[in-house]
Specification:
By secondary structure, the chain is an all-alpha fold. The protein has eight helices and two strands, in the order ββαααααααα. The chain has a two-stranded antiparallel sheet.
């Protein structure tokens, strides 16, 4: 039980003997847990794609209310998922806690943004549009739940330094040839000094 979890008191409340924490840990370690989360992320992403077809719907439209209620359901499900992990793993202080992992930090940011969006939904403030736009980040949660995609992204991030060096070398090569050919061919491609198409009257 609690393999790899160093946090002894989650939120300074839930010890490793606490029945709620034990239940949360068993839940997130269940074989079907990741599958269900990926299905939810997929459905949420499809819902966002569906919303783009009805972006100008008014509040009187049935589709508008269905979309809002669906968003609320997804938000609560993702909040439940994050809460289970926070209770089981601890939040931040200990090694291997939830927010010690960069991928979990991205999850936390997306879910927290959706909480603020849901809490302030009744207010008509221009800044809230930014929070609503953050819904489009939900498909990125695929990365946190797919080991193969994590490896690819980590490899790409790790190769940024090498790629930048390659671009620097290519830029130097282009600069050398640009200087060379400007000096070799400067002025030699001028084929006419008078505009032959000027209409003389």
């Amino acid at each position: 039980m609690f393999v790899g979890v160093n946090c002894q008191m989650s939120f300074f409340i839930f010890s490793k003997d606490n029945i709620i924490r034990i239940g949360a840990y068993k839940l997130i370690k269940h074989p079907l847990w990741e599958t269900i989360v990926i299905i939810l992320i997929t459905l949420s992403s499809l819902k966002l794609a569906f919303d783009t077809f009805y972006i100008n719907e008014t509040e009187e439209d049935l589709r508008f209310h269905i979309s809002n209620y669906t968003d609320i359901i997804f938000n609560y499900l993702f909040i439940f998922e994050m809460t289970c992990k926070l209770v089981a793993m601890g939040m931040l202080m200990d090694e291997n806690s939830y927010l010690r992992d960069n991928w979990n930090q991205m999850d936390f940011f997306i879910v927290t943004a959706s909480i603020f969006d849901m809490a302030l939904a009744g207010l008509d403030v221009g800044a809230l549009k930014i929070l609503r736009m953050l819904r489009t980040l939900r498909p990125l949660r695929f990365l946190t739940h797919n080991i193969g995609m994590k490896l690819i992204v980590n490899a790409l991030i790790g190769s940024v330094g090498g790629i930048s060096n390659v671009f620097l070398v290519l830029a130097m090569v282009y600069l050398i040839f640009a200087i060379l050919f400007v000096n070799l061919y400067k002025g030699t491609f001028f084929y006419c000094s008078i505009d032959t198409y000027v209409l003389h009257t």
